[in-house]
Amino acid sequence: MKGxxxxxxxxxxxxxxxxVTGLLARAxxxxxxxxITQKIVQTGCDGVAEDILEHRRIMGIGLQDADxxxxxxxxxxxxxxxxxxxxxxxxxxxDVLQIRRATFALQKRYDPVLLEGVGGLLVxxxxxxxxxxxxxxxxxxxxxxxxxxxxxxxxxxxxxxxxVKRGIVIRGVIYNCxxxxxxxxxxxxxELIRHWLHKEGFLAPLINIFDxxxxxxxxxxxxx
Length: 224
Fold this sequence. Notes:
Elements: E1 5-10, H1 17-30, E2 36-39, E3 42-43, H2 50-59, H3 65-68, E4 76-77, H4 83-89, H5 96-109, E5 113-120, E6 124-126, E7 129-130, H6 131-138, E8 142-146, H7 152-166, E9 170-177, H8 183-199, E10 206-210, E11 213-214, H9 218-222
Parallel strand pairs: 1-5, 1-8, 2-5, 3-4, 8-9, 9-10
Antiparallel strand pairs: 6-7, 10-11
Helix pairs in contact: 1-2, 7-8
């Protein structure tokens, strides 16, 4: 098995983790890497996972064999809700071993595998299993997506503390400036997040996204 797996999660829903996942995959692809993205669970659609389609659009490629085989989105549910509820309404249960098997299959073909979560770190995959617990048990490092929008400081520090509690390694933080904000707030929020990362013992880089573009050395800084 050759492929490393890196999890990508956000501090909340709608923070841009799907875009970030696609952007990182495109940057790695441009370096000649055999990268693939995976969505742990997709809710709110039928058929091919919408987030996988968005990843491929950003990467500038069509659907791959692994997509058509269902490996990159092992669970897709129509109801737009938390995975545990969407699965229940579809009269199904999420089997984490099925997800792990799909990831293992991708690891044999690709390096790295970028695994996008759903919602924030503490979103339940089932009544008793949170996404954060899943990546802890799998031993995957994490890239955390945040932004300068209102509430981001609170949500980011809570996410950092959740990682500390579980022993999850934060590989890096993506600072996604996709909404209009005052420069004072952008700068102050960035520095406060960096301060708390270091305060909690993480030497992870903080990578900026401005105007939809990743810092030129972002992939290198993240060690991907």
